[in-house]
Amino acid sequence: MGRMGDLDGGAQRLVAVRADELSLDEVFRAVGDPASGGTALFVGTVRDHDNGAGVTALGYTAHPTAEAELRRVTEKIIANHPVRALAAVHRVGDLRVGDIAVIVAVSCPHRAEAFAACRALIDDLKREVPIWKRQSFTDGTEEWVGAC
Asked: Is 127 helix (H, G, I), strand (E, B) or coil?
């Protein structure tokens, strides 16, 4: 898993699965586009609970194909929405409560299009990209989420 920058000069500007801390500024800069009237950004953070149980930490693990699958998902979003610029980054490794786990952003000609594309992007990423999380709970138990 690597660090990707401007992929091809097209709409797919930043697509990465990485262990490094994620940056809102980096993602926002990546989707900047003077022809876009709307930019939508989603940030997923580690929360302190899940289904009524206290969460102390998360660990994300990715399949070796995760970044390629993320790229495929972004290509689908670009094909189905009027996206001018897109970025999607997901973190792997051990995270604490409050840490940023995922950031997706899109720029489109109009606000409604940007919201729809951003929603589709995060939903498809969560459903299709092989990244799994291990939750650690305050009672000492653990649970894998998204694992087959």
From this structure: helix
